Amino acid sequence: MTRQPYPFAHRDDIVDDLHGTPVPDPYRWLEDPDDPAAKEWLDAQDALFKSTGLPGRDHLRDRVAALLKSGSIGTPVWRGERRFFTRRTPDQEHPVLYVGDAQGERVLLDPTVLDPNGLTTLDAYQPDKEGRRLAYQISVGGDEESMLYVIDVADGTVIEGPIDRCRYSPIAWLPGGEAFYYVRKLAPSAVPEGEEQFHRRVYLHQVGQSPDDDVMIFGDGLEKTNYYGVSVSRDGRWLSVSASRGTAPRNDLWVADLAASPAEAPELVTVQQDVDAQTGLLFGRDGRLYVFTDLDAPRGRVCVTSPETPTREHWRDLIPEDAEAVLSDFAVLDETDEPVMLVGWTRHAISEISIHALESGERIGQVPVPGLGSIGGIVERPEGGHEAWFSYTDNVTPTAVYRFDVLTGETTLWEAPPGAVEVPQVRTEQVVYRSKDGTEVHMLVVSREGSGPRPTILYGYGGFGISLTPGFSASTLAWVEAGGVYAIAQLRGGGEEGERWHRAGMLGNKQNVFDDLHAAAEHLIATGVTSADRLAISGGSNGGLLVGAALTQRPDLYAAVVCSAPLLDMIRYEKFGLGATWNVEYGSADVPEEFGWLWGYSPYHRVREGVSYPATLFTVFASDTRVHPLHAWKMAAALQHAQAGDRPILLRNETEVGHGARAVSKSVELAADQLSFLALHTGLEVSAGR
Questions:
Q1: Are 94 and 114 in contact (CB under 8 A)?
Q2: Would you call 659 a catalytic residue per the annotation?
Q3: Which contacts qualify for 282-291: CB closer than 8 Å, 24 or more apart?
Q4: pLDDT at 689 (0 to 100)
Q5: Among 65, 421, 462, 575, which residue carries the largest CB count within 10 Å?
């Protein structure tokens, strides 16, 4: 067969010596997108991708678009009788922020009105404690560099902003709505070159004053990659501040009594520091301090103490660790004869909510839920009450919001997404298989009635303690409706079985994640679901690293790969984007032992000439400030050079989007390209008649 003609990419003789190991990097010139040779190469890659015929693309695009016309609805945030929530109607590109009260509902913020081009996204919002003012954050073009504004809820008037450098900032209002704590990066001029993404601090801001006059509360002199959390109790008395180094699964934690020290100079008391655990605090309306922690409890537990004695020696277990389920959330309902706590769990990634006596923690009931799916955060009224709200979705159900009333014991639909869509009849089965070392791993398999082997997409993530739970996916349903199978493996490195499961797939244990994926593929083949020539793998971000490692370790096992916004050069990943915040998950090439872990699987460095690699599509985004597209650029060049077979290696570059939220139409086009590429190379014949 004729080999795919690829744009020329010169190979430089660059070899670094790291801890005595020669590390070649022939495509380092692709790290600079402004290099004329890199620009020429990228333009040629775009032309190559656009010239590639993808049969069935139009049909898949139309089906994904139709399924996304379900729209969306967000769980309400309550302030007295005011409720704040997002809703996206079938023809809108972005969710719109609403406020509702006794007079009805009205729009507070519509990103498309702010930017008719559809490039502006609403990153976060937080009403003040009285519901009179609201802080929100927006970013443009996918860069996630949030700008902070404050509006008057009554008339929508902007009374503050923009305040820049507020990426990933929590907002903790003080009572009265005149001031809040928040997190802001230092000015670029105040940090070393190349470290502009880091160096966050906690500030106190007075509404109406220049942010240049904000008082720094916390963070000076601490780790440059720290992320900070901040919250204030409903009555305004208690402040809590947390710090975690990058994405580490542990945090330091402090509290301050704002009745005993000024808001601009709180006297912080250490709750935990240099402890290998994640802990969060909730200051209860009953005066107790509720502690949510995985300390000595990898699946999570809830303890109680007094805010005056917040340290671990004073904690008393209220909801102990479960032997099988992972504790995910809780809420307190106290407008009853006997106050209760609702506790959210995931059991092998399937959600449930139990009811417990608030004083003793005794389990006294179960909240009815719509099915075997995923439940979002459980929301209560800040002032207390007998109701709670939560979102629910599964593989065939668009996310809806439900209300539970503890007085009646009933769960009712609060609001469905606004669009009606015809969902194909599919079945979801949870299977268990064994990985290379004998570990049992769960996997969801979505399919229509029929027998195999059928074209199959195997999806995974396996990192950062993130769980893959059932959820409505237009891409999944469009694929399955067309006759394919979609499998979601709950690999080690995720959070499906708690923090121990996460740590079994991080740092020096990362190979377990890849082994789990290979074993999932082998299980699907052995059970007749698919065959190696009909099996594709797909993943993004850390999941892009996953499939990049998989295609280099087992190129014989997979027919096709979609690798989106991936990490692939694991020797230099810390130098770009937010990479320096992830060495707590992967390790650092600067440390000899950790370099050995990374060198052992770094996909870019494992590409070998003369190997027949799967058909591979890299999809990357020009405004991605988390994972730089250079990973995919270098890997694509390496694979195109090395490919011994006739399966294509293609690169799809997209501008004005980033790693996270995007307009619906852009999501549709991306999904259509990915699905039709995988259909072509797994033998899925897509037709409108199915």
A1: no
A2: yes
A3: 283/233, 283/234, 283/235, 283/237, 283/238, 283/240, 283/307, 284/332, 285/234, 285/332, 285/334, 285/383, 285/384, 286/332, 286/334, 286/339, 286/358, 290/318, 290/330, 290/332, 291/315
A4: 47
A5: 462
CB atoms within 10 A of CB 57: 18
State the pTM of this model: 0.96
Amino acid at 642: A
pLDDT band at 451 (very low <50, low <70, confident <90, very high): confident
Q: What count of Cα atoms within 13 Å lies in the side-chain half-sphere of residue 403?
A: 14
Taking the C-alpha atoms of residue 518 and residue 549, their distance in angstroms, rounded to an integer, is 10
Q: In whole angstroms, what is the distance from residue 352 CA to residue 367 CA?
A: 8
Q: In terms of Cα–Cα distance, which of 175, 114, 103 is closest to 140?
A: 114
- Kind plus residue range of the DSSP H or E element containing 317: strand 316-319
Q: Which residue among 199, 442, 659, 681 is the active-site one?
A: 659
Percentage, residues of the chain above pLDDT 70: 99
CA-closest candidate to residue 175, choices 237, 218, 217, 126: 237
Closest CA to 402 of 359, 363, 369: 369
CA distance 233 to 508: 40
The first and second tokens of residue 607, run together, are 């590409």
Q: What is the pLDDT of residue 690?
A: 47
Of all residues in the chain, what percent carry a pLDDT higher than 90? 98
134 and 153 in contact (C-beta within 8 Å)?
Answer: yes
- Is 687 a residue whose pLDDT tops 80? no
- Please state the φ and ψ torsions of residue 45, each to the nearest 5 degrees: -65, -40
The one-letter amino acid at 401: V
**How would you class 169 by CB atoms within 10 Å of its CB: exposed for 0-12, middle for 13-18, buried for 19 or more?**
buried
Phi-psi region of 348 (alpha: psi -120 to 50; beta: other; left: phi over 0): left
What is the distance between the alpha carbons of residues 104 and 115, in angstroms, rounded to a whole number? Answer: 26
> Are residues 356 and 363 in contact, defined by beta-carbon separation less than 8 angstroms?
yes
Q: Whole-angstrom Cα distance, residue 546 to residue 617? A: 14
Tens-digit pLDDT profile for residues 491-521: 999 999 999 999 999 999 999 999 999 999 9
Q: Of 467, 541, 588, 676, which residue is the catalytic one?
A: 541
Mark whether 628 is an active-site residue. Answer: no
C-alpha Rg value of the chain to the nearest Å: 25
The whole-number average pLDDT for the span 119-145 is 97
DSSP 35: S
Q: Which DSSP state fits 379?
A: B
